[in-house]
Amino acid sequence: MTVDLPAYVDRVGLRLPLPPTVATLAALLAAHTRAIPFENLDVLLGREIRLDPDSLQRKLVRERRGGYCFEQNGLLLEVLRDLGFVAAPLSARVRLRQPRDFMPPRTHLFVRVEIEGTTWLADAGIGSFSLTAPIRLVPDLAQTTPHETRRLVREGPLWFHQVRLGGEWQDVYDFTLEEMPPIDRELASWYTSTHPNSKFRLNLSVARADENGRRRSLLNREFTVRHPDGHGESRMLESPEDLRLCLAENFGLEFPGGTDFPCPGLIWTP
């Protein structure tokens, strides 16, 4: 075993035993995305992102922090394997709000799970579009989740994971079912957390799923509550103290007063 399972299930609000079934996988994704927020705050604080199981448990479980895809899905992968699931790490290129002719870097990790001859995809680390239920690896099938409806579209060697918002399908990421071994995750995470043009170096990003189909997200100063149909209400944070309170009240992330998250997207006007 690589994970302290009792500590993890306590963190996400579940109880052992958890047999390796579809129902357990769904319960894990729903609970994980509600309890452990997606966030890139350590990147902005200049802290090293470590992906070994001990570091992931320390940060996401014991310290009650969140993380981005390599942390979220890295932990989820270890949990699933320790519970007896047949699970593998897959790589992807994030395409949110990007045209098809744009080639993004392969800097996303998600998880493939085999259960009784059926392939399921799990992803707790794509921000405000993290899966709150697993989806089957089946093309052109609209699949409901506690939040948005998803589908997978296959075009040649590429699969496109899509979300339906406001009646329209939008790409989330593309993938080829290629596995992502630890060395590739280390390299992609290093790029994501250190490259000056990485979106996680340029912006503050936090997200968490709610139980009622809503999602909460924070992009720089803009805090948004998004509803299942895609519409949302937003407000602009007014000060660093307002940001600190928002992180604590909406995402369970506690930081000392005066903590600064330096990035180009987070600019406070007098």
Structure description:
- By secondary structure, this protein is α+β, with helices and mostly antiparallel strands.
- Helix content is 29%, strand content 26%.
- The protein has eight helices and twelve strands.
- It has helices spanning 5-12, 22-35, 41-44, 53-62, 69-82, 182-194, 199-202, 240-251; strands at 38-39, 86-94, 108-115, 118-122, 135-136, 149-155, 158-165, 168-175, 205-209, 215-219, 222-226, 232-236.
- The strands form two sheets. The chain has a seven-stranded antiparallel sheet, with helices on one face. Strands 1-9-10-11-12 form a five-stranded antiparallel sheet.
- It is globular and about 60 Å long.
- The model has no long low-confidence stretch (mean pLDDT 96).
Short description:
This protein is of the alpha+beta class and 270 residues long.
| Overall geometric form | globular
Helix content, binned percent = 25-40%
Largest sheet: 7 strands, antiparallel
Average per-residue pLDDT, rounded, comes to: 96
| Rg measurement, Å | 18 Å
Percentage of β-strand residues: 25-35%
Uncertain stretches: none
Multimerization status? single chain
Structural class: alpha+beta
**Tally of individual helices:** 8
In whole angstroms, the N-to-C terminal distance is 52 Å
User: What's the helix-strand series?
Assistant: HHEHHHEEEEEEEHHEEEEH
State the strand order across the main sheet: 5-4-3-2-8-7-6
Number of strands: 12
Quickly list its features.
270 residues; alpha+beta; seven-stranded antiparallel β-sheet; five-stranded antiparallel β-sheet; 8 helices; 12 strands; 26% strand; globular
